[in-house]
Amino acid sequence: MNLSFSMESGKLTRRELLQRLSALAGGLILTGPISGCEGFWRREPAIPVDSWHKGVCRFCGTGCGIMIGVRDGKVVDVKGDEYAHNRGRICIKGILNREILYVRDRALYPMIRRNGRLERATWDEAMSLVAERFREAIDRYGPDSVAFYGSGQLFTEESYTANKLFKAGIGTNNVDGNPRLCMASAAAGYISVFGKDEPMGCYEDIDHATCFFITGSNTADCHPIVWERIMDRKRSRPETVIIVVDPRRTRTARHADYHLAIRPGTDVALYNAMIYEFIRNGFIDQDMVENYLTFREGDAERTFEDLKRHVAQYTPERVAPVCGVDARQIEEVAYLFAASEATMSIWTMGLNQQAQGTAANRLVNAMHLLTGHIGRPGATPFSLTGQPNAGGGVRDTGALAHALPNGRVVANPQHRAEMEDLWGVPRGRISPKPGYHAVAMFEAMARGDLKCVLIMGTNPAQSLPHAERYREAMQRTFLVVADAIYPTETAQFADVFLPSAMWVEKGGVFSQSERRYHLVPKLVEPPGEARSDLEILVELADRLGYGDLIKARTPEEVWDEWRQISAHSPYNFAGITYERLKKERGILWPAPTEDHPGTCRRYVPGEDPMAKGTGRFDFYGRPDGRAVVYLEHQQPSSDPRSDEYPLTLVTGRVYEHWHTLTITGKLEELEDITTDFLVVHPRDAHRYGIRDGAPVLVESRRGRAVLKARVSTDITPGVVFAPFHSPEALVNRVVNNTVDPISKEPAFKESAVRIRPASSAA
Ligand SMILES: Nc1nc2c(c(=O)[nH]1)N[C@H]1C(S)=C(S)[C@@H](COP(=O)(O)OP(=O)(O)OC[C@H]3O[C@@H](n4cnc5c(=O)[nH]c(N)nc54)[C@H](O)[C@@H]3O)O[C@H]1N2
Ligand SMILES: Nc1nc2c(c(=O)[nH]1)N[C@H]1C(S)=C(S)[C@@H](COP(=O)(O)OP(=O)(O)OC[C@H]3O[C@@H](n4cnc5c(=O)[nH]c(N)nc54)[C@H](O)[C@@H]3O)O[C@H]1N2
Ligand code: SF4
Ligand SMILES: [Mo]
Fold it and tell me: Domain locations in the chain?
């Protein structure tokens, strides 16, 4: 294969891509003839590279280490980093990290809307206009008339700076972003149970687990290298049990020993039944109950006896018809979960994106706490992060409407005072009023209450639920959009568009699922006039008169400030310096001193430097040092099926593509991978007259979309599935915008719909 030719022409054919993939999977590349076995050598660089640099994949929260080859100021190759946690492996999106920098439609210069059209402008013109409009809104309508809507794909330095500028400078808590659509329920779960956000465990636990409980996560497609590690464990220890809970027979579910094809939105009932079974079979860890746990229902205190009575209402027989699974299966799965030596739960959006997302998260944590499957190698409740930096960048920095850095909240006067002192602003500067969470922010725009909004690194015109409503809202607002690609769905509504550098064109810190902070170096210059998001924020600060507050101006300076701030919290990572980040393959916080190696298992005395005493645990995030087990009830659906809307639409992702396709949709290597489809069970296809491959109209109480039918038994009858990737199909017009009452995360995974052949649509 002639890789050098195609690489230089900027293209990788599909065949070459597959060859590179299979080669990487084995850590080898086949450079000789395919027949015979003489052709295996160690992988050679595909094309000449001047220098290799360690970095991190730009895509998912697995956060794979990659080596980036640079030549003549361009990224010319990437490969897996053998010394990083992913042991040299990367998935298809990892391989395409080079190609994404050079896609067509990179945004090259600022634009201002004039007479209804975005026209080229200078940076000075664009930023003067932005600053003028922000200043005008703040002066006339107060600080709460402006907002920042950010992203788990920005670097930590960028989210931290935006948060500080808006909360401590402008004085509004209207800072939120796409992690609200993604990790909010996981965060709310961890915070309410352990007092602090982020998982206790780490990837190394995968190598020790004897049972995997994977629920609401299509790990094989969405965290492929985490999945490879799970597969390694299964290969080396075949009796390892894999349980998958998912309404679809995903690639993940196909490898499961047990697949519970649950009805969407009924996880709370299932986990209650599992807890019932733990109690019935005597699998409760009494030491945990007596010494490390408290019980609650809402704000009211409860006891273990109350929990027993509570779950007695959720016997497997009762729950089976609610969840659409077999009672015997629930019993077996509960037994395997509890009886295993070390159980690791893995979950993502199937749980988080539900109207009861927080409750489901709390219960998964509770299953581990009650059975003692926690804080030991392989035993851990481990939520995976979606984006490359939703954890460190947004959750840890507190760049959310209710939050402040390191697990503080704006509603707490002491937390506000601490941050005001640390940021050196007068007491009282930080508003006590939580800002607008994502959906509320766009509702406020619809009402005209928000005058000016800066959107950075996210494409809400496509990714929000009930999209049409919020697209209209954006039309009403003075919108500033900073994006690496132009056009995007959201850019259509921009009054000012700012071109952003991405990934190694700027540099900064990402944090992935296991609390690992790791550095993406700046290696090349951005195209055209694009600037880093940090530069944009710093300039906005200067122009609004907050230059004194935003003194840190380079990623390294911002990181230094941030790590020192962390020292005043249980997240303490003061020891993670840029120097260390440049050398090491990331470090897991807490790591309070420069000689601290990082922490694999939090809350475990002896492992976690913040945990005190000699007991099994110190849940130091909670005032009494005990974790909380919540009693939760299964609620009726937030978008119930009816005669008119008899099916449930679940939305999600495919392996090859990323979100709104602004990047992966431009790659010729992926052009055969279409995403405008709807998976329909043959029974439902028959009932509603849908033919495989034919256009199908999907309608909900909110809107409609046309997709191509894929008739398949890989889905539960009564449920249909569509990825949300395609901007043309824009399935989010249909999707439910009800939010979880605690986390405020939308129920993207449960929308009542009806379907019919599109040809019959009026
Ligand atoms: N290829 C690829 N990988 C990605 C991304 C991408 O765009 N493309 N995005 C990244 C991001 S930001 C995220 S958040 C993650 C998301 O990663 P995942 O959460 O794994 O992906 P999804 O496809 O959104 O949803 C996961 C599964 O939840 C199931 N599900 C739906 N309803 C329920 C339910 O009620 N209960 C249960 N138990 N399961 C349910 C769905 O059928 C689906 O298979 O992926 C990350 N990785
Ligand atoms: N129906 C449905 N909807 C969903 C979900 C679902 O499962 N179902 N999942 C939700 C989840 S979990 C998520 S995370 C969101 C994701 O939704 P979005 O965040 O809206 O999706 P992306 O396509 O990742 O948008 C990122 C944008 O940032 C740009 N970009 C890339 N790098 C940079 C950079 O360095 N700087 C700047 N300024 N811009 C950059 C890209 O071009 C792109 O326009 O979607 C949510 N919406
Ligand atoms: S698994 Fe995620 S982080 Fe790793 S290469 Fe693939 S997309 Fe990148
Ligand atoms: Mo996400």
Answer: 8-100, 113-179+389-550, 184-384, 647-760
